[in-house]
Amino acid sequence: MASFVTHLESAIDGTQLPAHTLQTMHNDRPLWVRYDLDAVGKVLTQDKLRDRKPTMWRYRELLPPRDNANIVTLGEGMSPLLPAARLGTKFGLNDLWIKDESQLPTGSFKSRGQAAAITMAKELGVTRVAIPTAGNAGGAMAAYAARAGMEAFVFMPDDTPAINMYEAALAGAKVFLVNGLITDCGRIVREGKDTMGWFDISTLKEPYRIEGKKTMGLELAEQFNWELPDVILYPTGGGTGLIGMWKAFAELDALGWLANDKRPRMVAVQSDGCCPIVRAFDAGERFAQPFDNAATIASGLRVPAAVGDFMILDAVRESGGCAIAVDETCIRQWMHDAAGSEGISVGPESAACVGATQMLVESGWIKPNERTVIFNCGASQKYPDAMRVDLPRIDKDAPLDWAAMLHV
Ligand SMILES: *Cc1c(COP(=O)(O)O)cnc(C)c1O
């Protein structure tokens, strides 16, 4: 099967670049992947999807590789879309859903972006890749690189959750801990490019991670029978998923697949410990200033400067959405609220979305009957520090205190 990609397009000034050759950015800003959607519409129908496997590659015609043999996959995609009635009721919401990405390979939605990026790197002849990561992207890249037989270098802050360090090393990557933030790691990858000969898989510094992440939007549409929800809350670090979903909705619209004109209001959620996008949104700016002293247990949100800042802000504004920062000190509690009321393994990033949902319902920005979707982007098990609680102990030799057990 051939690719329907026509070209790449600079997100900052529309310059067109050829696809099917290795590309990075244009004027230090990201590229869009463009498709011949008329041609896609002639071969792909909603009916055809029904017979396909439940992975993100079911949307093959809307994905970039030219040759199926290059697809590097661990079965990622088609994550469950779960009703969250009990949690919704707590906030006064009647139609709350959680799109649960925690069940994807490597326990986060980073697998979608990495499946696409590593597939394309392989197709274009790359044999060595490198990434700066706040956590999950490094683990996912290491896994897909292993799957592709590629050499992987991962650079992460030295206080990244331990699981992220070990999962990447376990998958055979060369992992380095840096006494700084993801931006410092990014500089190392950039500076090493020529000497080390690696390809930079940083968020939005190659064109294809967005394409993998956009499949969240395609799936959401399909799972809701092509009728999009009213509000989407997305925990925003580099913003790939929010940008990608907004792109997906435009592509579905161009294909004429959406049941009505409704587009979700996109909400970019950050912690007040690192909220450059929220600040720019509030200030009416298109570009975000780097955020000083970024600190949050939601490591996926610890991105003080995003190269796709304007793409996030454009999507949020076009959608009629907003950007909102939540109280860092409440994130653990929201993890407990979500997991305790729904049994869903909600990581700290998405716990921030739980808090944001509550705030936005209280302020009246989300109405009680609006269909609202929280993206749960990573499994709580990847954050042992954020999960930690003091548990009561039982002395096996002492008399058992049943009443006390009821009150812990
Ligand atoms: C990376 C990550 C995010 C942020 O995603 P972006 O698309 O980069 O904004 C949120 N949550 C988790 C669990 C992540 O791993």
Question: Please, could you describe this protein's structure?
Answer:
Strands 4-5-13-10-11-12 form a 6-stranded mixed β-sheet, with helices on both faces. Strands 8-7-6-9 form a 4-stranded parallel β-sheet, sandwiched between helices. It has 15 helices and 13 strands. 38% of the residues lie in helices and 15% in strands. It has helices at residues 37-43, 46-49, 85-91, 110-123, 136-148, 162-170, 182-196, 209-223, 240-254, 276-283, 309-318, 331-342, 348-362, 384-387, 402-406; strands at residues 5-10, 16-17, 31-35, 81-83, 96-100, 128-132, 151-157, 174-178, 199-200, 231-235, 265-271, 322-326, 372-376. It starts with a strand and ends with a helix. The mean pLDDT is 97. It has a domain at 81-107 and 209-383: Rossmann fold. By secondary structure, the protein is an alpha/beta fold. The site of pyridoxal-5'-phosphate has 17 residues, from α5 and α9. Pyridoxal-5'-phosphate (PLP) binds at residues 108, 110, 136-137, 203, 235-241, 300, 347, 349, 377-378.
Main sheet overview: 6 strands, mixed
Q: Low-confidence segments, ≥5 residues, pLDDT <50?
A: none
Shape: globular
Tally of extended strands? Answer: 13
In a nutshell, what does this entry contain?
By secondary structure, this protein is of the alpha/beta class. It has helices spanning 37-43, 46-49, 85-91, 110-123, 136-148, 162-170, 182-196, 209-223, 240-254, 276-283, 309-318, 331-342, 348-362, 384-387, 402-406; strands at 5-10, 16-17, 31-35, 81-83, 96-100, 128-132, 151-157, 174-178, 199-200, 231-235, 265-271, 322-326, 372-376. Helix 5 (136-148) runs parallel beside helix 6 (162-170), helix 8 packs across helix 9 (240-254) and helix 9 packs across helix 11 (309-318).
